[in-house]
Amino acid sequence: MSRVSPLAERLAQVKDRIAAAALKAGRKAGDITLVAVTKTAAPEQVREIIGLGVGDLAESRVQVLTQKVAQANEFYERKLKGGEPGLPPRLRWHMIGHLQRNKVKAVLPLVDCVHSLDSLRLAEEIEAFGGKTDRKIPVFLQLNASEEKSKFGVAVGAALHLAEQIDSMSHLALLGLMTIAPLTSDMAEARFVFARTREIFEELQWHHIGGPGFRHLSMGMSNDFEEAIAEGATMVRIGSALFGAKSSDQLEEETE
Ligand SMILES: *Cc1c(COP(=O)(O)O)cnc(C)c1O
Known about the structure:
The protein is an alpha/beta fold. The protein has a single domain, classed as TIM Barrel. The protein is 44% helix and 17% strand. It is built from 10 helices and 9 strands. Strands 1, 2, 3, 4, 5, 6, 7, 8 and 9 form a 9-stranded parallel beta sheet that branches. Strand 1 (33-37), helix 2 (43-51) and strand 2 form a beta-alpha-beta unit. The longest helix has 20 residues, at 62-81. Bound molecules: pyridoxal-5'-phosphate. Pyridoxal-5'-phosphate is lined by residues 37, 39, 60, 96-97, 180, 221-223, 237-241.
């Protein structure tokens, strides 16, 4: 038997935990997409995880997106041409970090969807880009379900109105809600935030927002994805459990 790499091992563990959490919640593991967050990943780790069949990749920082996407896409196309087995059927890049309006033109050509839409003005900017490029751009409304002042995301009380406005835009496809739980070891607190997000999601569905495509909950990270799955997450965004802990420059950047 060939030796399994540390990344392959961690990927297998994460997949097992996703499957176990799904089973516990009476859900199918196949309904949950693992999105690999490449924030802390070295370029060779990104290539390796693609080779292991993971096709959904996410980045939160605009500055590194161009190079990361170009390198990953080049690797993927080359391996695909070479007939490498085990590749994902396609690569999809998810923008998960805060997006400033003046970065829309630079970021949107590189990514397939945006998880961090949280204002009307940003929605209008993406809508205009979609119009110019004749694209319908899949987006998630980011909800500040924990109502921490420091967090991005639309306030719970403003979510319905903003979702209606997004839904009326012809170049945006609203796929669902995204949320980030507070950084805490208290899993009950994380679970509460995910439950709250699911409630808002159901309320929006009740209002016929988004139509049949509105069916995703992007929630759960390395520390709390099992709680998120228990509350209905369909996409879990996992970085450090796959690629290892944060480097110091990334920590600095986050506290800026
Ligand atoms: C960094 C990040 C993640 C992944 O976090 P981990 O704890 O490393 O799994 C998920 N979502 C967003 C928005 C992030 O910025």
